[in-house]
Structures are given as structure tokens and as C-alpha cells.
Specification:
alpha+beta; Rossmann fold; 6-stranded antiparallel sheet; 2 domains; Tumour Suppressor Smad4; 7 helices; about 280 residues; elongated
């Protein structure tokens, strides 16, 4: 068996956890495939290219935070390889195992004692490009820092005009990311829906909206706005100008995440959100 490793080199625990995990994998007769970021952390010159990892790995382990998981999701694409997230600090809703649980998580994977969750992605079309977002796409204010006017439509039918600092269009997985910070609802991550959350709207009646995953949404700038910024999963940025359209719909493929078998999402959510325990 071969397992691919990617990591965030900025995490203080990265080198120690990776070295320990590689040693453990070799004892299990598993070949670790080190992506460039992992090789750099270990100060090695040899690494395995993404294409080779995708062609031969049965699992991708992402060590870091949610940003590393999003990078892993972009790397896997429609390939279907499951991703296991090891949290190296921070909140990390997508990284469902702690650094201390890394060895046990791999052992459980080998023994098939895990849950595999299929997570919906957004397909975002802009000009001649198509992006896939596990968390969200956002339209933010342009360089002038001025409030923007957005026209939102569903399948070419007008929904509303938003005057706001921007808007976040999120998956249920992304409901605990940017959308949550903007006041959007927490949505169970394996559901299929599209969340629309205005950013600091200038109209009191503007509220988050949950749309069916079957919808195709179109967003474009209104006549009062010349430029804004389109951001995909916090990683891809494009200038959006008046007259250009962004189309958002459910993607045709899913990302598979490895989750602890005996730990429910509500338990993970309660821990991450630091909700109070039930009193006796």
C-alpha cells in the first residue's frame, strides 16, 4: 500500500509529527509518498509529484489545518482518493484527527474502522475557467474598498439585489468557515445545499439563504460597482468587473473525507465550537 502525505510547513509540530508518522507507516510496510511540502519540512530534495501520488496512493493524509485540507481537495479533484486530516493546531473543522491520534487513525483506516463522508463541492464558472470549491466562493470588495452592488439570480430568474461588503456562497462543509463568521447557519456537512450569506449587508432585511443543491446561481455586479474580487476557497483570486458573470452550481463529483467511526459530527462540532457540556 502507498499513502500520500502533504503538509503545512508553517505548523510548528509538522516536522515531529511527520517523522513519527513516516516511521510508523514503514513499520506497517506502507510506502509514504512525500509531496513537495513534506520533503521541504524534512529537508529532503526528493519528492513525489502530485500526478504520481494520485496514480498510486490509496489515501492522502493532510497534516496542518483546513487550508491544507482544501489544498488536498484541489489536488485530488475528481480522482476519488479519500483524504484524512491531521490537525497540527488551530480550529480545523476539516481535520478531524488530532496529532496524537495520527497513528491510531491510520491503524483504523487499515482495519476499515472508520466513516467515509462524501462532501459536496461547488462548481464555479467564471469567464473561461472552472473552479471547484469544497468550502466556498466569495465575492469581496474591490481595491477601492467601497460597498458593492450584486445581482443574484437562480436559473436566470432574478432573486434579489444585494448592497453589501460582498457575499459568500458556501457548501454545507463550508458552513463552519467564512459563512459562519458572516452569520450564516451551521449545516450538517453531508447534506446537499447551497448557502448564500451576505457580508455586512446595507439592507436590514438581507439574511442568509439556503438554496437547493439543484439550483444554478448567477452573480454579477450591479451598475453602481465597477470591480470586485472573486475568491475560491481562499486560494484562487480573480478580478471581477461589471458585465462579467459568476455561475455557481453543485459539482458532479465529491470529496471523500475519512472520519472517526465512533465520534459523531455533533461531538466534533461541540468540541470545536467549545459549546458547554450538558449538565447532570
Amino acid at each position: 500500500m502507498k499513502i500520500g502525505l502533504i503538509a503545512n510547513p508553517k505548523k510548528p509540530l509538522a516536522e515531529k509529527v511527520i517523522a513519527d508518522l513516516i516511521e510508523f507507516l514503514k513499520k506497517k510496510k506502507i510506502t509514504p509518498l512525500l509531496e513537495k511540502s513534506v520533503a521541504e519540512i524534512l529537508m529532503r530534495t526528493k519528492f513525489v509529484k502530485d500526478k504520481e501520488i494520485l496514480n498510486s496512493a490509496e489515501l492522502i493524509i493532510a497534516l496542518g489545518g483546513d487550508g491544507t485540507m482544501l489544498r488536498a481537495a484541489r489536488m485530488v479533484g475528481s480522482n476519488g482518493i479519500p483524504i484524512m486530516g491531521i490537525n497540527l493546531g488551530g480550529l480545523g473543522f476539516l481535520t478531524m484527527f488530532s496529532a496524537d491520534e495520527a497513528r491510531q487513525a491510520v491503524t483504523d483506516f487499515l482495519n476499515r474502522k472508520y466513516r467515509e463522508e462524501k462532501r459536496m463541492l461547488l462548481s464555479v464558472s467564471f469567464k473561461n475557467e472552472r473552479f471547484y470549491a469544497l468550502n466556498d466562493c466569495a465575492i469581496n470588495m474591490g481595491p477601492d474598498g467601497r460597498v458593492i452592488e450584486l445581482i443574484l439570480s437562480r436559473d436566470s430568474v432574478f432573486i434579489c439585489k444585494l448592497i453589501a461588503d460582498g457575499v459568500v456562497v458556501a457548501t454545507p462543509t463550508g458552513s463552519t468557515a467564512y459563512s459562519l463568521a458572516a452569520g450564516g447557519p451551521i449545516t450538517f456537512p453531508t447534506m446537499e445545499a447551497i448557502l448564500i450569506t451576505p457580508l455586512s449587508p446595507h439592507i436590514l432585511s438581507a439574511r442568509p439563504l439556503v438554496a437547493p443543491a439543484s439550483d444554478t446561481l448567477t452573480l454579477e455586479l450591479g451598475t453602481r460597482t465597477n470591480q470586485a474580487i472573486l475568491v475560491i476557497d481562499g486560494q484562487e483570486r480573480r478580478a471581477l468587473r461589471f458585465g462579467e458573470k459568476v455561475r455557481v452550481s453543485k459539482a458532479n463529483h465529491y470529496i471523500k473525507l475519512i472520519a472517526p467511526k465512533n465520534k459523531s459530527y455533533y461531538e466534533i462540532l461541540r468540541t470545536k465550537m467549545k459549546w458547554s457540556e450538558r449538565g447532570e
